[in-house]
Design a protein that fits this description.
Helix content: under 10%
Distance between the termini: 40 Å
Number of helices: 0
Number of strands: 11
Strand content: over 45%
Largest sheet: 7 strands, mixed
Mean pLDDT: 95
Low-confidence stretches: none
Length: 127
């Protein structure tokens, strides 16, 4: 029902910045909590950042805290991930996800709680 399309990935050098975008379909976008997850080769999917329906509350993985910023524009049905001071260990396929049911506490960090996923966008950071 909900379609998510990521964009903005690419190849950058360590220390550079990149901004990922996720465009969502649907009239009820403002009712979805949104998250960003990533998966590196040979690694399991991991939580990166999440934002509440209103955009007031945000959560970040310790590994990206202080470097990444998640935001949303409900009028545009879009969520963003601003990535600064990129490191080689940030290299991964990045996915945006939407939760159509209410999330609380640690549920924001749990991929299984999100109902819809985008196709992913590759981010490669060279040293």
């Amino acid at each position: 029902q909900v379609q998510l399309v990521e964009s903005g990935g690419g190849l950058v050098q360590a220390g550079d910045s990149l901004r990922l975008s996720c465009a969502a379909s649907g009239r009820t976008f403002s009712s979805y909590a949104m998250g960003w997850f990533r998966q590196a080769p040979g690694k399991e999917r991991e939580f990166v950042a999440a934002i509440s329906r209103s955009g007031i509350s945000t959560s970040y993985a310790d590994s990206v805290k202080g470097r990444f910023t998640i935001s949303r524009d409900n009028a545009k049905n879009a969520v963003y991930l601003q990535m600064n001071s990129l490191k080689p260990e940030d290299t991964a396929v990045y996915y945006c996800a939407a939760a159509t049911t209410s999330l609380t506490g640690m549920a924001y960090y749990t991929g299984a709680r999100y109902n819809y996923w985008g196709q992913g966008t590759q981010v490669t950071v060279s040293s």
